[in-house]
Fold this protein.
Amino acid sequence: MAAPSATARGTPSGLMMKDGYRCLITFASAPTIGFWEKTVKPPGFDGGDKIDITTMFNNDLRTFEPRQLITMTPGGATAAYDPGVLTAIMSLINRKDTITVRFTDGSTWAFFGFLKSFTPNDLSEGSHPEAQVEIEPTNMDSTDVEQLPVVVSVAGT
Protein backbone atom coordinates (compact mmCIF):
# COMPACT_ATOMS: atom_id res chain seq x y z
CA MET A 1 0.00 0.00 0.00
CA ALA A 2 1.23 3.50 -0.82
CA ALA A 3 2.10 6.11 1.78
CA PRO A 4 -0.80 8.32 2.91
CA SER A 5 -1.42 11.53 0.98
CA ALA A 6 -3.21 14.69 2.08
CA THR A 7 -6.91 15.12 1.30
CA ALA A 8 -8.48 18.57 0.88
CA ARG A 9 -11.43 19.35 3.16
CA GLY A 10 -14.69 19.60 1.26
CA THR A 11 -17.76 21.67 2.03
CA PRO A 12 -19.97 19.81 4.52
CA SER A 13 -23.35 18.64 3.30
CA GLY A 14 -26.56 19.23 5.23
CA LEU A 15 -27.52 22.18 7.40
CA MET A 16 -25.48 23.29 10.41
CA MET A 17 -27.50 24.01 13.54
CA LYS A 18 -27.00 27.69 14.36
CA ASP A 19 -28.48 27.73 17.87
CA GLY A 20 -28.74 25.07 20.57
CA TYR A 21 -32.27 26.13 21.47
CA ARG A 22 -34.40 23.94 21.60
CA CYS A 23 -33.55 20.30 22.28
CA LEU A 24 -35.97 18.00 24.12
CA ILE A 25 -35.80 14.45 25.54
CA THR A 26 -38.90 12.24 25.44
CA PHE A 27 -39.48 8.92 27.18
CA ALA A 28 -42.07 6.90 25.21
CA SER A 29 -43.69 5.59 28.39
CA ALA A 30 -43.97 9.08 29.93
CA PRO A 31 -43.97 11.72 27.17
CA THR A 32 -45.29 14.47 29.49
CA ILE A 33 -43.09 13.72 32.51
CA GLY A 34 -42.83 16.74 34.83
CA PHE A 35 -39.41 18.10 34.03
CA TRP A 36 -38.44 20.96 31.74
CA GLU A 37 -35.11 20.78 29.92
CA LYS A 38 -32.81 23.78 30.38
CA THR A 39 -29.70 22.26 28.81
CA VAL A 40 -29.43 18.96 26.92
CA LYS A 41 -26.45 16.76 26.16
CA PRO A 42 -27.42 14.31 23.40
CA PRO A 43 -25.81 10.87 23.49
CA GLY A 44 -22.63 10.52 21.49
CA PHE A 45 -20.67 7.76 19.82
CA ASP A 46 -17.29 6.30 20.79
CA GLY A 47 -15.23 3.78 18.84
CA GLY A 48 -13.30 2.69 21.94
CA ASP A 49 -9.59 2.42 22.53
CA LYS A 50 -7.31 1.38 19.70
CA ILE A 51 -5.95 -2.17 19.60
CA ASP A 52 -2.15 -2.40 19.76
CA ILE A 53 -1.09 -4.84 17.03
CA THR A 54 2.64 -4.14 17.30
CA THR A 55 4.88 -7.18 16.82
CA MET A 56 8.58 -7.90 16.81
CA PHE A 57 8.46 -7.31 13.05
CA ASN A 58 7.78 -3.56 13.49
CA ASN A 59 10.87 -1.45 12.82
CA ASP A 60 10.05 2.15 13.76
CA LEU A 61 6.51 2.61 14.99
CA ARG A 62 3.88 0.87 17.04
CA THR A 63 0.90 -0.09 14.89
CA PHE A 64 -2.77 -0.02 15.80
CA GLU A 65 -6.16 -1.18 14.56
CA PRO A 66 -9.57 0.35 15.32
CA ARG A 67 -12.21 -1.69 17.12
CA GLN A 68 -15.19 -3.07 15.25
CA LEU A 69 -18.05 -1.96 17.55
CA ILE A 70 -19.25 1.51 18.53
CA THR A 71 -20.47 2.52 21.98
CA MET A 72 -23.36 4.95 22.18
CA THR A 73 -22.37 7.23 25.08
CA PRO A 74 -24.69 8.55 27.82
CA GLY A 75 -26.73 11.69 27.37
CA GLY A 76 -28.73 13.82 29.72
CA ALA A 77 -30.06 17.17 30.70
CA THR A 78 -30.26 19.82 33.35
CA ALA A 79 -33.95 20.32 34.00
CA ALA A 80 -36.40 22.25 36.13
CA TYR A 81 -38.83 19.84 37.76
CA ASP A 82 -42.10 19.34 39.56
CA PRO A 83 -41.39 17.90 43.03
CA GLY A 84 -44.57 15.83 42.61
CA VAL A 85 -42.86 13.92 39.79
CA LEU A 86 -40.92 11.64 42.17
CA THR A 87 -43.13 8.57 41.68
CA ALA A 88 -43.13 8.97 37.88
CA ILE A 89 -39.34 9.44 37.83
CA MET A 90 -38.81 6.36 40.00
CA SER A 91 -40.93 4.33 37.56
CA LEU A 92 -38.51 5.26 34.72
CA ILE A 93 -35.25 4.51 36.55
CA ASN A 94 -33.59 1.39 35.06
CA ARG A 95 -36.65 0.69 32.89
CA LYS A 96 -35.97 0.01 29.21
CA ASP A 97 -37.79 2.52 27.04
CA THR A 98 -37.64 4.28 23.71
CA ILE A 99 -35.95 7.64 24.19
CA THR A 100 -36.19 10.40 21.58
CA VAL A 101 -33.93 13.44 21.37
CA ARG A 102 -35.55 16.17 19.25
CA PHE A 103 -33.14 18.78 17.93
CA THR A 104 -33.78 22.45 17.23
CA ASP A 105 -34.33 21.83 13.50
CA GLY A 106 -36.91 19.09 14.19
CA SER A 107 -34.55 16.20 13.48
CA THR A 108 -34.81 13.27 15.90
CA TRP A 109 -32.69 10.43 17.24
CA ALA A 110 -34.77 7.60 18.72
CA PHE A 111 -32.97 4.82 20.58
CA PHE A 112 -33.49 2.21 23.24
CA GLY A 113 -32.21 3.10 26.68
CA PHE A 114 -33.20 3.91 30.23
CA LEU A 115 -33.18 6.72 32.76
CA LYS A 116 -30.11 6.07 34.89
CA SER A 117 -30.48 8.90 37.36
CA PHE A 118 -32.47 11.97 38.33
CA THR A 119 -30.46 14.00 40.85
CA PRO A 120 -31.82 17.29 42.21
CA ASN A 121 -29.26 20.07 42.64
CA ASP A 122 -28.92 22.04 45.86
CA LEU A 123 -31.87 24.30 46.55
CA SER A 124 -31.30 27.89 47.62
CA GLU A 125 -33.18 31.17 47.79
CA GLY A 126 -33.02 33.09 44.55
CA SER A 127 -32.20 30.13 42.31
CA HIS A 128 -34.34 28.04 39.99
CA PRO A 129 -34.57 24.44 41.30
CA GLU A 130 -32.91 22.07 38.84
CA ALA A 131 -31.98 18.40 38.59
CA GLN A 132 -29.45 16.42 36.57
CA VAL A 133 -31.03 13.80 34.31
CA GLU A 134 -28.81 11.01 32.96
CA ILE A 135 -29.88 8.61 30.22
CA GLU A 136 -28.05 5.45 29.16
CA PRO A 137 -28.47 3.87 25.72
CA THR A 138 -28.94 0.07 25.72
CA ASN A 139 -29.22 -0.42 21.94
CA MET A 140 -31.48 -3.46 22.49
CA ASP A 141 -35.22 -3.82 21.99
CA SER A 142 -37.56 -5.63 24.41
CA THR A 143 -36.53 -8.99 22.93
CA ASP A 144 -32.82 -8.18 23.47
CA VAL A 145 -32.11 -7.76 19.76
CA GLU A 146 -29.47 -5.16 18.88
CA GLN A 147 -31.01 -2.03 17.34
CA LEU A 148 -29.32 1.04 15.87
CA PRO A 149 -30.68 4.49 16.69
CA VAL A 150 -33.31 5.69 14.22
CA VAL A 151 -32.37 9.07 12.78
CA VAL A 152 -35.05 11.21 11.14
CA SER A 153 -33.73 14.34 9.47
CA VAL A 154 -35.80 17.29 8.36
CA ALA A 155 -35.75 18.36 4.72
CA GLY A 156 -32.43 19.91 3.75
CA THR A 157 -30.31 18.10 6.32
In short: The CA atoms of residues 93 and 155 lie 35 Å apart. The domain at 24-152 is CATH 2.40.30.200 (Elongation Factor Tu (Ef-tu); domain 3). The first helix runs from residue 86 to 92. The chain has one helix and eleven strands.
